[in-house]
Amino acid sequence: MTSVVRIRGLVRRFTLKGVLNGVDLDIQRGEFVALLGRSGSGKSTLLRALASLDREAVGSGELVVPGKISVVFQDARLLPWKRVLENVVLGLAGPDADDRGRRALAEVELAGREDSWPYELSGGEQQRVALARSLVREPELLLADEPFGALDALTRIRMHVLLRRLSVAHRPAVLLVTHDVDEAIELADRVVVLDDGKIAADIAVDLPPHGEPRRAQIAALRTRLLGHLGVEDLLDDGAEAISATR
Amino acid sequence: MTVVPAPSLAARQGVALSRAGRTRSGPPRRLGLSRPAAYGSLLGPILLLVVWSLGSASGLIDPRVLPAPWVAVHTGLDFVRDGRLQGHLAVSTFRAAQGLAWGVSLGVVVALISGLSLLGGYLIDGLVQLKRAIPTLALIPLFILWFGIGEGMKVIVISLSVFIPIYVHTHNALRAIDIKHVELAETLRLTPLAFIRHVVLPGALPGFMLGLRFGVMGAWLALVVVEQLNATSGIGYMINLARTYAQSDVILLGLVIYAILGVSSDAAVRLLERKVLSWRRTLGQ
């Protein structure tokens, strides 16, 4: 496997927020990596560095990223003055741009909504448009910054299934920033925990396909990840208590 | 259009809730406005017209001070019959349209230069703010010295009155473009030209439309003033002449024409606004 992202000794400082203190990370072609971390751990800073959205930061280190990167933000960031299809194909060149946009919308199950205004869509639908806008560019690296954070639990489950299916179909490398341990386990091939600007854990998710062994491994993995996130004290009542509070 | 006096949503919810016996403090207060009635803003002017008509008919209003509304209508019909009104109206409209065209084009171009480049902003914005502090009408004596008292001076004064609001609101909207949309454009690798076309210009359109409404009003306002200066045609000239002969009905006719021009052009701009900003969903719609 070849890596599409190579990060060595990445340091980022801002005057006020977000610090990275020497991050090393590789992401392979087609690999789905979840980046976990507490608020302020630097996970969004790392994503913004990969997306070249951190020009105001000072820092050092080696950062190799592919040419075709798409970003899905926490808010869908649709342009309110463009209809859905126009949002998807924004900046795309070529006579077949509209057709590609239509196909991408069909893939996120929004065929027929091409001419809607963004405000006419629900939050989940808007985020699906954002997903279509990213996928239509056939990125080598898809960066997602807590893309489901603003969605309700049911919509989030549907989005998980959709994202998983799309990433299998298109095989981009994915870096999903999230603070949701279960989301990370469910979606990713690998979970990376960022703490205080450094990689605190890097764990491959290799689960049995189904049944009791799978459930047991998920529980163990979740306990381990929560420990890395510094919430092990809350685990006295077992993982069920954690999931009950979620 | 008809207005159906349906009970508000809040009221209906309130009824349902009290039937279920779950509320004691009444329905929740609805904070948005209820649906506006069509042509509701005509209520005030119509009321004024009624009071005015009653006053004139009963003799409470001296016709030498303010003629009755129907006198203005009669005078208007006379002027239309002998073609004088159309002539004056055409001249006035042409002046306003010229000023509007110049003011809008210059306002947009200068706002773009000033809004989209730092250097442009440093150079232009301070100057325009300085100009804003001086009423355009106060510049007329200087303009007469520079440009004479002909059509050129009149169009320049109108253009300047349009330019200022167009510039101020467009520039303001350009600088207020959401940084999130800028980031999006960067991640989508938009070219600078595509960024301006798809993000900046549509994003600044609401500001421009607001400026246009002020600009159109400003054009008529400036027209009224410049047409009292050495004009030989136009509604303002018509009013001035009438003042000389103490024809209060003609003065009134001129004022009514100005009002109609102002209101109808503002309505036209608002219609245009609704068309081009149909993507917006706001409290007042």
Any key phrases for this structure?
heterodimer, A: 246 residues, alpha/beta, Rossmann fold, 3-stranded antiparallel beta sheet, 8 helices, 25% strand, B: 285 residues, mainly alpha, MetI-like fold, 11 helices
Explain this structure to me?
The complex is a heterodimer of chains A (about 250) and B (about 280). Chain A is α/β, with parallel strands linked by helices. Chain A has a domain at about 5-70 and about 140-210: Rossmann fold (3-Layer(aba) Sandwich), CATH 3.40.50. Chain A contains eight helices and nine strands. Chain A has helices spanning about 45-50, 85-90, 95-105, 125-135, 155-170, 180-185, 210-230, 240-245; strands spanning about 5-15, 20-30, 30-35, 60-65, 70, 140-145, 175-180, 190-195, 200-205. In chain A, helix 3 (about 95-105) packs across helix 4 (about 125-135) and helix 4 (about 125-135) runs parallel beside helix 5 (about 155-170). In chain A, about 40% of the residues are buried. The mean pLDDT of chain A is about 85. Chain B has about 280 residues and is mostly helical. Chain B has a single domain (about 70-275), classed as MetI-like fold (Orthogonal Bundle), CATH 1.10.3720.10. In chain B, about 70% of the residues lie in helices and about 0% in strands. In chain B, helix 3 crosses helix 11, helix 4 (about 85-115) packs across helix 5 (about 120-135) and helix 7 (about 150-175) runs antiparallel to helix 9 (about 190-225). The longest helix of chain B is centred in the last third of the chain and has 35 residues, at about 190-225. The interface between A and B is medium-sized, with 20 and 22 residues.
